[in-house]
Structures are given as structure tokens and as C-alpha cells.
Write a structure and sequence with these properties.
six-stranded mixed beta sheet, TIM Barrel, 22 helices, 18 strands, alpha/beta, 3 domains, Chitobiase, domain 2, eight-stranded parallel beta barrel
């Protein structure tokens, strides 16, 4: 007989009864039957409940179907009294405001007063108790269970449903991305008891689906995008977005930025907003899209009106405000919008990079952006007809600099969002790489009384990475989020999750931190993750493998000198492109290639590449050694999560190693004009470099089976095939 799913104290506290002083005496019946070979539960949810809750109950029905092999219909609540006309196990889900739910609770002796408390926001209650017949007959009679899943509001009720699925049914909330679908369980026993909880740390907890090249092209048919940008030609398919949304909800996220550069006037893109709000999520906008208007949207709006170039907020502010009003009216049709305020340029750049009218001083630029923020705040109030709304201003790149200098002003009710903008000093070709640590303003700006603050953090980031392979160590995430909580920046937390599948550990970790940071313990969390994903027998081995992954990344200094960055896949790509450019320059002039490198940056690149070669060779070797010990049902996830990702990273390291040897040979050949041997060596090393990428591509292509067919078809950002072609073309 299957034992009840153990509580996972690493992310949600579970102490049995919500209030031990009020707990009833120990039940006479040790375990309640939810389902067995002859008994199946009936599901009940009132048709008048919010649609998002009914969707969640449908997910519960699906989970039960996978576990039991039976189809579970959803029924209205039974009228009291009696609570039920028969003694079958039942599951009731609803909100505490629903009269039918309150009547059911009263008829069954369930106290829901805590859900009515003034501070009950997204609070939920799970109560497992015997059916009336079981209570009458005791241990000698029926042991069928009543499962009561209730929330103080629709989100709290959803959390009750999804917490029950994870805690008691054993459903991995990330199963859609970890190949960990619920397993068949002919018998399921549950311990009687009460579990209540609500979010303890961040009010808004969300994801940003950003740099989503793999998600966009995984399934065809999502619709086309009209954007003058190389990476976003297709809209994420609605079925794929539903996977994203369901996973976010199972992890108790309540907010989603559903795409990069989303244009709500395109019906296919608007669908993403509609799906998120129908499922009960708040929605917000990319930090380059104030009121949903990116620079690309501004261009499209005015191009459709016969104007080839968009207006400048400096010289024609009324026309820009017209655009903001148009988009605000479209977004205002949807509930739960968290409005983004700001003024950015084209393609995630400062506004002054594509608007020559912007004044030259940083103080004047800050004043301009502050004026735009004030205008946008007023436009939202106008669009909604009230001032009861939530707005944010996310300080990315130049926003960090301006905020740190004190040049930005915000409405008093706007959440100011700090970002992890700390970078390394300039590396090859003058590049900076992101370090996944807070920018200067986070540490220096005094928090203003009455203002709320939040955070924007990347477990994936373009261009530096991680992108195709995981990379931010759990200990770093825990430390950095903890710094924000210590400063009280807990109004909102957005995690950049990119394509999700590559960074599931970081996603799971940040969800736990955002829910209840004080209850979180890193070591138990990590051990539990390894055991659940790869089996108890392989848990220690996979923990060791994660350490090998972390050790394979070279550690880079950062601009503040107090933190370290890691050399992720995107940074390796950028370094390799700098090498390709330097090789081409070296053929034209002995000194021209030096524009890409100083002796220090070239030496660093060689050192980092050597470290990566050794580290990723060791990581891939250990992954292949452990693979036979992974349970068959977890083998596909292990293969992608470790073997494929390590192969990609090793391929990049080998590619860079070949490029560096080719650069050395090319520079040597330039010094000795006409040295055919050096020229042949350059070609040879370039071919070795390209072949290394070919091997990585072949390994990942072989993994695209079953539901993951075409997963890497959308690799437009790292674009390993293009790197291999570019390398060969240079030879």
C-alpha cells in the first residue's frame, strides 16, 4: 500500500494542524482512503466559482485520472444536509465567500474563520477528514475521505488545489518540463489533518517569458509577429503557453509577463494575455514596454498611420501619449494588469541611442524619463477611470545608473523594481557579462517611506547566459534574494525564466523563496530535489553532478570587486564571435586584430577556455557514468538536464579552444607574410572548432524525441548551427 506523500518542509511549512491549541484530538482513523481498486472520489466545484478555480480543479481531475486510470467528472456541490447522499470519498474545492462552500463547511464541522481574517490574502486551507459514515463507524467501518480545499479568494483556492496535488498526490509541479508525469497508484491513503498557509514573503510573484526562441518555434501555428527584430517571428503556440501558465500556477506564481515585445493589437499575441488572465494570473509588461508599447510597437502604430518614422517624446510628446493611450485602452480590457512605466529605446537600449533629441546630460535624461513615467501613470488612471491600480518601474541597464544618481522620480504608489544588472569589467571586444547580482542602486539608494520596492532576477539571461544550459548556482540565488528581503524589497519578484526547460531547478528554487523565504532551507531543498527528480538511490550522485556543473564555470571578477560572475553559454558565444572577428582582422593587418583584445583580455579568454574544457569534460563524463543508475522513468529528463547541456557547453569550449589556436596561427602568419603552413593551420583549427559545434548539435538533435520533437528548432539566439557555418566560412 502506498504511503502518504511526505510533507515537503523545504518550501512550505507543514505542522499538522493550523493551530495546535485548537486541534481536535487525534483521529480514531489513521488513514483515509481517497481511491483504491474499487473506490474513486467524486470532485465537486460550484459552477459559480471563478473560471480560474474551475480550471485548477480540472487539472486536479487530470492528475487523479493519471493516478487512478479513471475519468473524474466535476460536479456541483451537494446541498446540505446531509453532506452527501452516499459514502464515497469526495473532494470539494471552492472559495470561502461562496455560500454553498460555507454551507458545506458548516455541515461537516469545518471552521473556515481564518480564511475570513482581514490579512487573509491568497490564504488556503486543506482539510482531510472522514466522511460522515466513517466518523460514525470509526476504524471498523468506512475509511473514505472528505477532502476540503478552500481559499480566501480565487488564488488561495487554486493554491489549495495545487498544494494538494503536490503534497498528497505526489505530482511534480514542473512535470510538464521534467518528464515526470504522475504515476499510477492503485491505492492512495491520506492522513487526516489540516494544513493552512498563505504567501509569507512577496505579494506579487511572477515570471517573465523572455528570449523565448525555443518556446516560440517548438510548435507551429501560434501566429506571426510583425517586428523588425531577428529573433521573434512566431508567437508562442497557445498550447505551449497553457503549459507555461499551468506550471506557474502549480508553483503558486500569481503574475506573468507572457512574452518579449508583446503587441496586444496583434490578436495572436493578445491571446497570450487572455489565456493568462483567464487562468487567474496578474499580467504585466516587459521593462521596455511602458503601457505595453515597445519602440517596435510605436513604429508600427505610426507606420499604419502613414508616418515612416515614429515621433519623439522630446519634440512631439502628444503623439507619443496618443500611442500610450491607445495601448492602455487595449490592456485595460483585462483584469489584473500590473502596469509597467518607463521610457526605453529600440531593442532593450536607452532611449537616447535612437532618439537624437534626448538631452545629453544624465540629469536631463532622468528628468525626461520621470516626466514620461508621470504621464503614463495619469494615462492609466484615465483608461481605468480610477486610481486603484498597481504599477511598476523596472530599473534595467541605464535605469540602474539614473536611479543610483538620484535622477529618477516615481509616483508614490509605483513599485520600484531593482534588477541584477551588475556586470564584469570589459572582456574581449569590450564586452560586459552579467553576474546575476544587484546593480549599484540596490546597495546605495535609500528606500523612501511609503514607497514599495521589488526585484527582477534572472535564472536565464541573454546575451551573457544562461540560455541553452542551466548555470546560476542555487546558493547564489538564495543569497541574492535574501539581500533583497533583508532590505524590505518584497512587493514584487519577477524571475526571468526564458524557455523554462533549461532552468527548472532555478525556477523551482525561486518559487520557494518567493513564497516563504524564512521557512526555506537550502540543503534540505536541494537534497529533496535530487531525490524526487532522480530517485533516492541516485540522489547523492546527482548532487555531486550539480557540483561538477558549478565547478565547470570559470569565475570572473565583477565591476564592484565584491562579487563574482560565471562564464555562461552566452558569454562563451560572444567571446567566440570576438575571436572570429579578430581572425578576419588579422588577415588584413598585423595590428588590426588588437582592437578586439588587450593582452589581459586575451589571456583571460585562454584561461577561461582551458578551465571550461577541463570542467565540462569532467561533468559530461560523470553524467554518463551516473546515467545507468537513473530510474528508467527519469532517464529522459536526466539526459537533457545533464548530458545534453554538458555536451553543449563542452562543444562551446572546444569551439573556443580551436578559435584561439586559429587566432594564434593567423597572427603568426601575418608576421610572416606568405607562410602557407600557418594559413593551412588556421583552416585546420577552424574546422576543428566547427566540428566541435557539430558534435554538440548532433547530441541535442538526437534528444528531440517524443513530445520534445523540434525543441531546438527555434535556436535563434545562441544559434549553434550559424556559429558552425560562420566558422567554416572564415576558413
Amino acid at each position: 500500500m502506498r504511503q502518504p506523500h511526505p510533507p515537503d518542509d523545504t518550501h512550505i511549512p507543514f505542522a499538522g494542524f493550523a493551530n495546535e491549541s485548537e486541534a481536535p484530538p487525534p483521529p480514531r482513523i489513521p488513514f483515509m482512503i481517497l481511491c483504491d481498486t474499487t473506490t474513486q472520489p467524486t470532485l465537486h466545484c460550484d459552477p459559480g466559482e471563478p473560471a480560474c478555480l474551475r480550471h485548477a480543479v480540472a487539472d486536479l481531475a487530470s492528475d487523479l485520472g493519471k493516478i487512478s486510470g479513471c475519468v473524474h467528472a466535476i460536479h456541483p456541490l451537494p446541498p446540505p444536509p446531509p453532506p452527501l447522499g452516499n459514502d464515497s470519498p469526495i473532494i470539494v474545492a471552492g472559495t470561502s465567500q461562496n455560500p454553498a462552500v460555507r454551507a458545506f463547511a458548516a455541515a461537516n464541522g469545518i471552521d473556515i474563520a481564518t480564511l475570513d481574517a482581514p490579512d487573509a490574502c491568497e490564504r488556503f486551507r486543506i482539510q482531510i477528514l472522514p466522511t460522515p459514515a466513517a466518523r460514525d463507524q470509526g476504524a471498523d467501518g468506512s475509511r473514505n475521505a472528505v477532502i476540503f480545499l478552500c481559499g480566501s479568494d480565487e488564488r488561495g483556492a487554486m493554491w489549495a488545489v495545487y498544494e494538494f496535488c503536490e503534497r498528497f498526490l505526489g505530482v511534480d509541479p514542473l512535470y510538464l518540463w521534467t518528464d515526470n508525469a504522475p504515476a499510477r497508484q492503485p491505492v492512495l491513503d491520506l492522513p487526516p489533518g489540516i494544513h493552512e498557509d498563505q504567501p509569507r514573503t512577496f505579494r506579487y510573484r511572477g515570471w517573465f517569458i523572455n528570449d523565448e526562441d525555443l518556446l516560440s518555434d517548438w510548435r507551429d501555428g501560434g501566429g506571426t509577429r510583425d517586428i523588425d527584430y531577428p529573433f521573434y517571428n512566431q508567437v508562442v503556440h497557445p498550447d505551449v503557453m497553457m503549459r507555461v501558465i499551468e506550471t506557474a500556477l502549480r508553483l503558486k506564481q500569481n503574475l506573468l509577463i507572457p512574452a518579449s515585445f508583446l503587441d496586444i493589437t496583434n490578436p495572436a499575441e493578445e491571446t497570450l494575455v487572455r489565456l493568462a488572465t483567464e487562468r487567474g494570473l496578474f499580467v504585466s509588461q516587459h521593462h521596455i514596454e511602458p503601457l505595453g508599447v515597445s519602440h517596435f510597437a510605436l513604429e508600427r502604430y505610426w507606420r499604419a498611420r502613414g508616418r515612416p518614422t515614429p515621433p519623439s517624446y522630446v519634440t512631439e510628446p502628444d503623439l507619443v501619449r496618443e500611442t500610450w493611450r491607445h495601448y492602455a485602452a487595449r490592456w485595460a480590457r483585462y483584469p489584473g494588469v500590473v502596469w509597467q512605466l518607463g521610457l526605453r529605446g529600440r531593442g532593450d537600449r536607452p532611449v537616447w541611442e535612437n532618439d537624437s533629441h534626448v538631452p545629453p546630460t544624465m540629469e536631463a535624461r532622468g528628468a525626461l524619463i520621470s516626466r514620461a513615467i508621470a504621464d503614463q501613470h495619469a494615462i492609466v488612471r484615465e483608461a481605468l477611470g480610477h486610481d486603484n491600480f498597481v504599477s511598476t518601474s523596472t530599473l534595467w541597464k541605464e535605469g540602474t545608473t539614473l536611479h543610483n544618481a538620484g535622477f529618477l522620480k516615481f509616483p508614490s504608489d509605483t513599485i520600484v523594481v531593482f534588477a541584477d544588472t551588475l556586470q564584469t569589467p570589459r572582456a574581449a571586444a569590450g564586452q560586459h557579462f552579467y553576474a546575476q547580482h544587484w546593480g549599484d542602486d540596490f546597495y546605495s539608494v535609500t528606500r523612501q517611506p511609503g514607497h514599495a520596492y521589488g526585484i527582477y532576477y534572472h535564472v536565464a539571461v541573454w546575451r551573457s547566459g544562461p540560455h541553452l544550459a542551466q548555470g546560476v548556482p542555487p546558493a547564489k540565488i538564495h543569497q541574492v534574494v535574501g539581500e533583497a528581503i533583508a532590505r524590505g524589497d518584497t512587493a514584487l519578484a519577477i524571475t526571468n525564466v526564458a524557455n523554462l526547460r533549461e532552468v527548472v531547478l532555478g525556477i523551482r528554487l525561486t518559487a520557494a523563496l518567493k513564497w516563504d523565504f524564512s521557512a526555506f532551507q537550502l540543503e534540505p531543498f536541494f537534497n529533496d530535489w535530487c531525490a524526487r527528480q532522480f530517485g533516492n538511490a541516485a540522489a547523492r550522485d546527482t548532487a555531486r553532478l550539480y557540483e561538477k556543473f558549478n565547478d565547470a564555470f570559470p569565475s570572473l571578477p565583477t565591476e564592484d570587486g565584491g562579487h563574482r560572475a560565471l562564464w555562461h553559454d552566452g558569454a562563451m558565444r560572444e567571446s567566440g564571435i570576438a575571436c572570429l572577428d579578430a581572425i578576419e582582422r588579422s588577415r588584413k593587418s598585423l595590428d588590426l586584430w588588437r582592437e578586439n583584445f588587450t593582452p589581459e583580455t586575451l589571456g583571460n579568454l585562454k584561461k577561461w577556455t582551458a578551465h571550461s574544457l577541463g570542467g565540462w569534460t569532467a561533468a559530461l563524463s560523470l553524467a554518463r557514468e551516473i546515467a545507468p543508475r537513473i530510474p528508467p522513468g527519469r532517464a529522459s529528463f536526466f539526459h537533457h538536464h545533464f548530458e545534453v547541456q554538458a555536451a553543449i557547453m563542452l562543444g562551446l569550449a572546444e569551439w573556443l579552444s580551436g578559435l584561439l589556436r586559429a587566432l594564434d596561427a593567423s597572427v603568426s602568419g601575418t608576421k610572416n607574410v606568405g607562410a602557407a603552413a600557418d594559413s593551412d593551420l588556421v583552416v585546420h583549427e577552424l574546422e576543428i572548432a566547427a566540428t566541435a559545434l557539430d558534435r554538440a548539435i548532433a547530441i541535442r538533435t538526437a534528444s528531440e524525441t517524443g513530445q520534445w520533437r523540434h525543441w531546438y528548432r527555434g535556436d535563434h539566439k545562441m544559434n549553434l548551427p550559424a556559429l558552425a557555418r560562420q566558422t567554416r566560412e572564415l576558413s
